């Protein structure tokens, strides 16, 4: 007779979940004992890194990923990036150890007191099996729940004495749908409104990229002769950013966003919230006379939109179905976007000049991971994303995602055999939230490049304080940090890029290395404006 542990490993194998990200503790050891040779345990030194690595891996492989955390404290440490996984729509199966059932009544050390409540509300489903024999089937349900739309993280709390129990017969290995098509009648209404529109505009979000739908998005934009904006603060790029219809990323405040849409009568939003606002700049959500049509696979996202009519459906399937119904528009194509001015030549450079230099030596198939808050606008302006599934950041606003996510993405690039180079641009503040991910990259010999614009401050918070008139906030400067020593301590190569002409050589060398390289690059301390 098989044990719960054996039956669970067989199921994980059948589901293709043979990579386990984690940080082990006593409550996980009975699960991890005699770790099978066909599984890969990716050791993170902190749970925040484990969760974000798994998130990056899941997004880059396009499949759910499994992360194993240490009971309540490990879950707590992973929570910030669980919040991010929720907003990123990443199908993550988070399992966590729990103390022995026999002792739970008296709450021993490391008992998870309210295990199903602890990760709420940032999981789709949270469960502690009622019997040890339910553990394998709970994994099956967790997998199905995480993968089905809207995809997202789930949580299993697993008592450590369950693993040696005798199992029931194994659960059936099931498959579930990961996308669904829109209601045909409502779809026709949307198509009719678009066809009758005088001046439609498209606003596209990360779900378009998750659905591998760039070509159909471009075909719809061309059919409608409509300009295309990226939804504010997107976690992935949704459209070829060198396409003549592309306009840029919408601002993330109410009034400035509506202002950019002025002149349009129909705004078609696909695969993004309406909208991911950040600083409060009050105003109308839409320009006068405009009507918003919202396509999303998440009923909750549709319900909380302040304006617009919604259609539930997968971004790619819905765009394809719309394309079939739309006649070619009889209007000129939108005028091309002005090319940005040449960057300045100050020393130290500003972010704009740094990213212009980065764009000049960017590897064609490079994957960009971004967590550099005040420099985001400059980065997105200077380095257009021209290939699908090659730009990743956090949807949540929580720091500590980008660095470990880049490590998970680089591992996925290796495991899938795609081998695309991964470059993370991480602010010198953001760098420290999950910095220990560097060690995992070094141990796995992943050639991730981490470019750190060093401004020795939390510049975006200074910009926010300026916007909101809150002077005198403490804790916004970052003196006395030695990034080179820190990176070396975790086993990385480093090179300080003191002069922009050195960047190309530093980047090319780092991409050829057999391990991670950190490139601290001093930049101007001038504070970019927030809007
Ligand atoms: C987990 C978490 N803690 C704190 C913050 C608040 N916060 C937002 S941006 C920021 C500073 C980021 O600094 P840095 O990476 O150097 O980027 P810069 O703003 O200087 O471009 C902080 C602390 C956050 N977003 N997430």
Automatic annotation (TrEMBL):
Keywords, A to Z? Lyase, Thiamine pyrophosphate
EC code(s) of this entry: 4.1.1.7
- Thiamine pyrophosphate enzyme N-terminal TPP-binding domain boundaries: 3-104
Which positions fall inside the Thiamine pyrophosphate enzyme TPP-binding domain? 381-519
UniProt entry tagged with the keyword Amino-acid biosynthesis: no
Q: Known Pfam families for this protein?
A: TPP_enzyme_C, TPP_enzyme_M, TPP_enzyme_N
Gene3D superfamilies for the chain: 3.40.50.970, TPP-binding domain
**Chain intervals for the UniProt region annotation (Disordered):** 328-350
Q: Which domain of life is it from?
A: Bacteria
Thiamine pyrophosphate enzyme central domain location, by residue?
188-322
What CDD domains is this protein classified in?
Answer: TPP_BFDC (cd02002), TPP_PYR_POX_like (cd07035)
User: What SUPFAM superfamilies does this protein map onto?
Assistant: DHS-like NAD/FAD-binding domain, Thiamin diphosphate-binding fold (THDP-binding)
**Which family is this sequence assigned to?**
Belongs to the TPP enzyme family.
Bias (Pro residues) ranges: 332-346
Q: Which residues form a coiled coil?
A: none
Q: Write down the top EC class of this protein.
A: lyase
What organism does this protein naturally occur in?
A: Micromonospora humidisoli
Spell out the protein name for this chain. Answer: Benzoylformate decarboxylase
């Amino acid at each position: 007779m098989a044990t719960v542990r054996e039956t669970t490993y067989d199921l994980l194998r059948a589901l293709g979940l043979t990579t386990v990200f984690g940080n082990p503790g006593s409550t996980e050891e009975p699960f991890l004992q005699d770790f099978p040779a066909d599984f890969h345990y990716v050791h993170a030194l902190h749970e925040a890194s484990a969760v974000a690595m798994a998130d990056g891996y899941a997004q880059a492989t396009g499949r759910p990923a499994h992360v194993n955390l240490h009971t309540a404290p490990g879950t707590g440490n992973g929570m910030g990036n669980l919040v991010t996984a929720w907003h990123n729509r990443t199908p993550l199966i988070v399992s966590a150890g729990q103390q022995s059932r026999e002792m739970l009544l008296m709450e021993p050390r490391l008992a998870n007191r309210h295990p199903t409540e602890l990760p709420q509300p940032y999981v789709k489903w949270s469960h502690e099996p009622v019997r040890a024999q339910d553990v394998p089937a709970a994994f099956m349900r967790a997998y199905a729940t995480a993968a089905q739309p809207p995809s997202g993280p789930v949580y299993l709390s697993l008592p450590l004495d369950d693993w040696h129990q005798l199992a029931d017969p194994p659960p059936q290995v099931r498959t579930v749908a990961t996308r669904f098509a829109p209601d045909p009648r409502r779809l026709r209404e949307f198509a009719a409104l678009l066809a009758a529109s005088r001046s439609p505009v498209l606003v596209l979000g990360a779900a378009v990229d998750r659905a591998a739908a760039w070509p159909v998005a471009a075909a719809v934009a061309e059919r409608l002769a409509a300009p295309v904006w990226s939804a504010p603060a997107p976690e992935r790029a949704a459209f070829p950013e060198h396409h003549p219809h592309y306009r840029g990323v919408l601002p993330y405040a109410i009034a400035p966003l509506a202002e950019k849409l002025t002149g349009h009568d129909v705004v078609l939003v696909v695969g993004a919230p309406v909208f991911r606002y950040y600083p409060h700049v009050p105003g109308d959500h839409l320009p006068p006379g405009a009507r918003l049509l919202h396509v999303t696979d998440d009923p909750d996202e549709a319900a909380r939109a302040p304006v617009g009519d919604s259609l539930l459906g997968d971004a790619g399937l819905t765009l394809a179905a719309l394309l079939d119904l739309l006649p070619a528009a009889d209007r000129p194509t939108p005028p091309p976007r002005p090319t940005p001015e040449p960057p300045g030549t100050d020393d130290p450079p500003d972010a704009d000049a740094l990213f212009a230099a980065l764009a000049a030596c960017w590897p064609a198939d490079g994957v960009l991971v971004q967590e550099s808050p005040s420099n985001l606008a400059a980065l997105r302006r200077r380095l257009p994303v021209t290939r699908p599934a090659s730009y990743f950041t956090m949807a949540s606003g929580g720091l500590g995602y980008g660095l470990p996510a880049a490590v998970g993405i680089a591992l996925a690039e290796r495991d899938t055999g795609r081998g695309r180079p991964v470059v993370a641009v991480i602010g010198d503040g953001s760098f420290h939230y999950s910095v220990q991910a560097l060690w995992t990259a070094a141990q796995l010999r992943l050639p991730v490049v981490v470019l750190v614009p060093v401004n020795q401050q939390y510049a975006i918070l200074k910009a926010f304080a300026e916007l909101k008139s809150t002077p005198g906030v403490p804790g916004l400067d970052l003196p006395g940090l030695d990034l080179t020593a820190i990176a070396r301590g975790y086993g990385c190569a480093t090179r300080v890029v003191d002069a922009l002409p050195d960047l190309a050589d530093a980047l090319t060398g780092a991409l050829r290395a057999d391990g991670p390289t950190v490139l601290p690059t001093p930049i101007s301390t001038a504070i970019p404006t927030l809007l």
